[in-house]
Amino acid sequence: MTQAQRIALGSVVVGAVVLVVKLAAWFFTGSVAILSDALESIVNVATAIAALVAVRVAARPPDASHPYGHHKAEFFSAVLEGVMIVIAALLILHEAWGRFWEPAAITQPWLGSAIVVAASVINGAWALVLIRKGKALKSPALSADGKHLQTDVVTSIGVIIGIAAAVATGWYWLDPLMAALVALNILWSGWHVIASSLSGLMDESVSEDELADLRNLISDHAEGAVEAHDLRTRVAGRATFVDFHLVVPGDMSVTAAHEICDRIEVALKKHLEECIVTIHVEPEDHAKHTGIVVL
């Protein structure tokens, strides 16, 4: 099992624990806001399972049907997570709307709030782990899961504030109102997750700063060539695909040109841990004089 898979499995366990804790808080209080928080945790568990499956699929090596690998499986998981977040938000809004017109008193509010705080601490700590590891492992599924958990922490803080205000004023309609605000926050989070994942499915390029680094690496390690042009990149999960045209002197041997390509490829793969490089070699009369000048 890879490190990404172990972390994804950890998310399933953490999500299940937090769900049980929040359901206990709802049992003691009867708060619709806490119920909405628990419903989001159900989504957390479901999306953690989806992320685990996606990470396992993405780790598979290329095969005859998928010669470029299975890296994009993680983006599908992230999109699914965004959709499920939106569905959870709509369910919460439905519940909040009915309770707003028939507000009920909250029982044992401080015990329930303490339980929610404990669940939030667990979620917050694990969210930091997921975001840090997701960035290090270039895993969209883990990063999306971490950002979702951060939203869950903000949600829980809002729930606690709403309960405190409702108990202090006796205005128990504040409880479903806070649940509705929680749902709107979740909707925003779901849209953000979907939008960021769709960019990956659309073969988004690396950042401008990263592109500049790649240009410099090609220039520094292409001694013997004339120039490089038509540099293109795309990111698919942990993998970065790089392809460009390398212009060499017309009388250069195939062996010498191949040695230059190998040197560039080694440098790029050292810079980007999972990098797939394609280089098209051209003779000098194909130079465009608009690409990467070789130092």
List the helices and strands and how they pair.
Elements lengths: L2 H27 L2 H27 L14 H29 L7 H28 L3 H30 L4 H28 L6 H14 L5 E10 L2 E10 L5 H18 L3 E9 L8 E2 L2
Parallel strand pairs: 2-3
Antiparallel strand pairs: 1-2, 1-4
Helix pairs in contact: 1-2, 1-4, 2-3, 2-5, 2-6, 3-5, 3-6, 4-5, 5-6, 7-8
Question: Which whole number gives the mean pLDDT?
Answer: 81
Sheet with most strands: strand arrangement: 3-2-1-4
Give the H and E element order.
HHHHHHHEEHEE
By CATH reckoning, the class of the largest domain would read Mainly Alpha
Largest sheet: 4 strands, mixed
Number of domains: 2
The tally of beta strands, per DSSP, is: 4
Structural class: alpha+beta
Within the CATH hierarchy, at the fold level, what is the topology of the largest domain? Alpha-lytic protease prodomain-like
Keywords:
4-stranded mixed sheet, Cation_efflux, Alpha-lytic protease prodomain-like, 295 residues, Alpha-Beta Plaits, 68% helix, alpha+beta
Polypeptide structure, described:
- By secondary structure, the chain is of the alpha+beta class.
- The chain has two domains: 3-201, Alpha-lytic protease prodomain-like (Up-down Bundle), CATH 1.20.1510; 208-293, Cation efflux protein, cytoplasmic domain (Alpha-Beta Plaits, 2-Layer Sandwich), CATH 3.30.70.1350.
- It has helices at 3-29, 32-58, 73-101, 109-136, 140-169, 174-201, 208-221, 254-271, and strands at 227-236, 239-248, 275-283, 292-293.
- Strands 3-2-1-4 form a four-stranded mixed β-sheet, covered by helices on one side.
- The chain is elongated and about 85 Å long.
